[in-house]
UniProtKB/TrEMBL annotation:
Organism classification: Bacteria, Pseudomonadati, Pseudomonadota, Gammaproteobacteria, Alteromonadales
Protein name from the UniProt record: DUF1778 domain-containing protein
Keywords annotated in UniProt: Toxin-antitoxin system
Gene3D superfamilies the UniProt entry points to: Single helix bin
Family: Belongs to the TacA antitoxin family.
Any Pfam family: TacA1
Family matches, as InterPro entries: Ribbon_hlx_hlx (IPR010985), TacA_1-like (IPR014795)
Amino acid sequence: MATARLDIRLDEEIKAKAEKASALLGLKSLTEYIVRLMDEDSTQVISEHESIKVDANVFDQFMIACDEAKAPNKALLDAVAFTKSSDFK
């Protein structure tokens, strides 16, 4: 059961269009329509900002570089230790 509340103000024209879209989709209420839109859109936005997409050839080049990488030097190891001790995420 939902417990959070969101109050918004919008143009009558936007509200009317949203109510019509909600009815055309067979949803029970405007609230159900808005919640559905917010959930779908926020999921997509978060996904787009928390992932990286690269072309296959770029990924292949990256993997080759990783395979050919040498052992980390002291500066890199120190940087890793610093970030772990500083709670970087």
